[in-house]
Design brief:
Blueprint (H helix, E strand, L loop, with lengths): L1 E4 L10 E4 L2 H16 L6 H10 L1 E2 L1
Antiparallel strand pairs: 1-2, 1-3
């Protein structure tokens, strides 16, 4: 199981995502970034930051 806390990249954000795979986490994060942070797409450098902060739980 994988987990990512958005606050690890966006200070103050309390959203947390859990999924079986890293790709599932990235899909959830992309939807969250659009809905809650107003990002139309997630830049490669942000994807890299997210990947670095995904933990195995």
């Amino acid at each position: 199981m994988k987990q990512f806390s958005c606050g690890a990249v966006v200070p103050g954000c309390t959203a947390t995502f859990t999924a079986e795979t890293e790709d599932e986490i990235l899909g959830q994060v992309a939807a969250h970034a659009q809905a809650d942070h107003g990002m139309e797409s997630v830049p490669d450098e942000v994807v890299a930051q997210v990947r670095e902060k995904i933990e195995t739980v």
